Amino acid sequence: MIVTPQSMPFREPLALQSGAAIRDYALAYETYGTLNAQRSNAVLICHALNASHHVAGAYAGQERSQGWWDTMIGPGKPVDTDRFFVVGVNNLGSCFGSTGPMHVNPDTGRVYGADFPVVTVEDWVNAQARLLDALGIERLAAVMGGSLGGMQALSWTLQYPQRVAHAVVIASAPNLTAENIAFNEVARRAIVTDPDFHGGHFYEHGVIPRRGLRIARMIGHITYLSDDVMNEKFGRQLRERMDAVQRTAGAYSYTLQDVEFQIESYLRYQGDKFSEYFDANTYLLITRALDYFDPALAHDGNLAKALAPALAKFLLVSFTTDWRFSPKRSREIVKALLDNRRDVSYAEIDAPHGHDAFLLEDARYMAVVRAYFDRVGKELMSAAGPSQGAKAPPGGSEPHAVGSVGAPS
Amino acid sequence: MIVTPQSMPFREPLALQSGAAIRDYALAYETYGTLNAQRSNAVLICHALNASHHVAGAYAGQERSQGWWDTMIGPGKPVDTDRFFVVGVNNLGSCFGSTGPMHVNPDTGRVYGADFPVVTVEDWVNAQARLLDALGIERLAAVMGGSLGGMQALSWTLQYPQRVAHAVVIASAPNLTAENIAFNEVARRAIVTDPDFHGGHFYEHGVIPRRGLRIARMIGHITYLSDDVMNEKFGRQLRERMDAVQRTAGAYSYTLQDVEFQIESYLRYQGDKFSEYFDANTYLLITRALDYFDPALAHDGNLAKALAPALAKFLLVSFTTDWRFSPKRSREIVKALLDNRRDVSYAEIDAPHGHDAFLLEDARYMAVVRAYFDRVGKELMSAAGPSQGAKAPPGGSEPHAVGSVGAPS
């Protein structure tokens, strides 16, 4: 599937949760499949920290340019683009195409840098809603995301309950734990205390706070993997380019700063690569959006109350070895939805890969999502016409809000 | 209990595992209690990353100068200094008194800095054995340590099996997992990529790589605590000095770089404090010693074979919420010792505090250690004289190696 990125400009200011506003911004996006005549088959994909609007397919003439969720989305895949019109969108503040800290602030004529306004999950959802307006999509067949993307999918059902038929929330949480905030904070400190950060205005100095970005990414990678998979993948194996004699003897080279174990070279490589393409201000923005997300905050911590406005049907998926967004956190969302008598499916996948599992091709995981989207597709068909009338639930044009949805408490 | 640190100089070179040697070094140490006439009641305490020879008691005229394990060791405490002669020793390479990177290299007349030789757990144990020689202690009633200190206690039983009656190994592991090495590596990278590190020769530049040390300590703190205790202690509470109106409203201030959550100010405070007193080169040395420790390496990973030389009796303790040195890792040691038919006691303490629990005053934990040292004391008494003859096991002067100790396989 060959795809082309697009950009949608927005002139009108978007009011942000912080009280600030942003104007003259653009959102990068891609679409896969065809919007049907009823405009009812759209699926919005929300991305997490290190991802973008390039969700599926590949760019013409570019090897290895597959989208980040290409195993999940495409023709004949679990989210089948022969059936659904899938929209991938890059969030505000990103460094992959949408307006972000590297762009020029129209109010000052200078690059935003650290002056880019703080954006939240709710702000992103509002910006995505405007994009859908521009694309002529009133109601989503589904909104879907993993991790931070799952937070956006959940927030969609609260901010625009009438516009979402199904929400697919994968490896996510109703808010971050103190431990997760702590990891984010260490990563941010590594970035902002890098002398090349220059208070976030490093672009003007022609430098990049690479050291901080490397550390941030290394921390991230540790938390994305499970202890078990890390042991299996790297264990205590000595580095590959070690002198062959030493390696055979299983001996150490007794070095303090050089790479000794394979896990070290893996992390350094990941850190180096990341620091080449990721923007430091974007890292701060996105991790802060993670920290801030907490729909229950305005309800004295009562998540059931917070989720009462949701009208969508839900699929939640978690992974047993994910210690960053553990199954326990997904179960909190499931319970709060059930307290509101919502229609919820939940799958806890026994996968060894930790948080990363949501991006990997696990057969059971794929089967769960495929089955769920089959159901979404069938509901679309039964809503579409009289040929399926016998199976259609009462309510006609709004079948998704009928039957299994209880009244908000 | 008022105590005084002492220093023992060593002229003779100490051969190190790396092949290098160190000469003209000194070890800082403290002793508590009285060595008995038979010189049989000595207990050696080995320290972990951020600790020293100052294990118990306090310094005259210094408020809040209690040793790092003062809850455990002292008159009437679980390791009772009315009964045992306890020795605390600072390891080579430390920054708390023993010869380390901040001292002058006698070979060059310059401060060691990054040229301080790599030291291992085995090297530390050899250095500690020399200190005991100098103190006239041939055989230890017990060697004891937590975390990295537990690795030293375990190594004592392998390097000097005849010199150790009991080994108390707390919250430790037979080696680090890939995840633990990974956390160490990120901390090290933060230090060595700090521009103030100057390749480890920062002393000459009159600077300290504080940024790197802060990040290292923040990472450490996250891994010492359990997710649960962090949530309980800090949760998602907003910072204390926040504007009272905002705090009442439970609202955010939408800041990217300032402290927003209490966990952030806690970590920053810990990082700042640490960077004021801890040496960067010492941090590299000690974390590398942790990485390298792996007695099974020379036995194709067979821990039972590796532990076969041990003659001591063992107490192992682990804590349920310790994800850095999990109970599973202690159980590996227990199993390997049982495979060798060694005398092993094992307690898995249900404590919420994560790895930090080994330093805290948990009643069950204290009771387990107290009961074990009661036994160590009784064995000493029964070995000491005919008045306890009826209870003494056969074997006379070497009672500790008799009965429950099987033959090495």
UniProtKB/TrEMBL annotation, chains A, B:
<feature type="active site" description="Nucleophile">
    <location>
        <position position="147"/>
    </location>
</feature>
<keyword id="KW-0486">Methionine biosynthesis</keyword>
<feature type="binding site">
    <location>
        <position position="356"/>
    </location>
    <ligand>
        <name>substrate</name>
    </ligand>
</feature>
<dbReference type="InterPro" id="IPR029058">
    <property type="entry name" value="AB_hydrolase_fold"/>
</dbReference>
<dbReference type="InterPro" id="IPR008220">
    <property type="entry name" value="HAT_MetX-like"/>
</dbReference>
<dbReference type="GO" id="GO:0005737">
    <property type="term" value="C:cytoplasm"/>
</dbReference>
<keyword id="KW-0012">Acyltransferase</keyword>
<keyword id="KW-0808">Transferase</keyword>
<dbReference type="InterPro" id="IPR000073">
    <property type="entry name" value="AB_hydrolase_1"/>
</dbReference>
<feature type="domain" description="AB hydrolase-1">
    <location>
        <begin position="41"/>
        <end position="361"/>
    </location>
</feature>
<dbReference type="GO" id="GO:0008899">
    <property type="term" value="F:homoserine O-succinyltransferase activity"/>
</dbReference>
<feature type="active site">
    <location>
        <position position="355"/>
    </location>
</feature>
<keyword id="KW-0028">Amino-acid biosynthesis</keyword>
<comment type="pathway">
    <text>Amino-acid biosynthesis; L-methionine biosynthesis via de novo pathway; O-succinyl-L-homoserine from L-homoserine: step 1/1.</text>
</comment>
<feature type="site" description="Important for acyl-CoA specificity">
    <location>
        <position position="324"/>
    </location>
</feature>
<dbReference type="Pfam" id="PF00561">
    <property type="entry name" value="Abhydrolase_1"/>
</dbReference>
<keyword id="KW-0963">Cytoplasm</keyword>
<dbReference type="GO" id="GO:0009086">
    <property type="term" value="P:methionine biosynthetic process"/>
</dbReference>
<comment type="function">
    <text>Transfers a succinyl group from succinyl-CoA to L-homoserine, forming succinyl-L-homoserine.</text>
</comment>
<feature type="binding site">
    <location>
        <position position="217"/>
    </location>
    <ligand>
        <name>substrate</name>
    </ligand>
</feature>
<dbReference type="GO" id="GO:0004414">
    <property type="term" value="F:homoserine O-acetyltransferase activity"/>
</dbReference>
<dbReference type="GO" id="GO:0009092">
    <property type="term" value="P:homoserine metabolic process"/>
</dbReference>
<protein>
    <recommendedName>
        <fullName>Homoserine O-succinyltransferase</fullName>
        <ecNumber>2.3.1.46</ecNumber>
    </recommendedName>
</protein>
<comment type="subunit">
    <text>Homodimer.</text>
</comment>
<comment type="similarity">
    <text>Belongs to the AB hydrolase superfamily. MetX family.</text>
</comment>
<feature type="region of interest" description="Disordered">
    <location>
        <begin position="383"/>
        <end position="409"/>
    </location>
</feature>
<feature type="active site">
    <location>
        <position position="322"/>
    </location>
</feature>
